[in-house]
Amino acid sequence: xxxxxxxxxxxxxxxxxxxxxxxxxxxxxxxxxxxxxxxxxxxxxxxxxxxxxxxxxxxxxxxxxxxxxxxxxxxxxxxxxxxxxxxxxxxxxxxxxxxxxxxxxxxxxxxxxxxxxxxxxxxxxxxxxxxxxxxxxxxxxxxxxxxxxxxxxxxxxxxxxxxxxxxxxxxxxxxxxxxxxxxxxxxxxxxxxxxxxxxxxxxxx
Length: 205
Fold this sequence. Notes:
CATH architecture of the largest domain: 3-Layer(aba) Sandwich
CATH topology of the largest domain: Rossmann fold
Mean pLDDT: 94
Number of domains: 2
Order of helices and strands: EHEHHEEHHEEHHHEH
Structural class: alpha/beta
Number of helices: 9
Strand order of the largest sheet: 2-5-1-6-7
Helix content: 55-70%
Number of strands: 7
CATH class of the largest domain: Alpha Beta
Radius of gyration: 18 Å
Largest sheet: 5 strands, parallel
Distance between the termini: 16 Å
Low-confidence stretches: none
């Protein structure tokens, strides 16, 4: 089974792209959703409190909105939370992979895949792109937030061209190009590569 990482900056539409892959029966691991679930894990809760104190808690639970305001305005705080969360998310991913090992390939969706040098965990990577002004409009329409907060989050991510240079496949989601044909082309290539690897493995056995 091939392990494929899929990424894209905030508002790029990578979740929409993942839904298309899911319609093709390709399992998707959502790293950001798994990370949010970890905020209910006792060890993670203790770690967050040790790093940031009670100021990021509401009624005894990690308040992700309060936490986001802290980490997206302080690069050191962002680095600290990532060091706490990434190993725990990857551990969940490894367990998840075992349950989906019959698929030709799986997707691991993460916004900061390249920023944290996670590409080495995957056979191939996909980057979903869109112009910054379109991404900003999408996030403002989707989230209950301000333009200033979105721009702060955008500034913390790598420029798209840097990610595009590292990715194996690019999907352009600018509103002008159809997504489905782009996904189908990549899907076809990955299924072929997966089948070749399976045949090689059988020959060696």
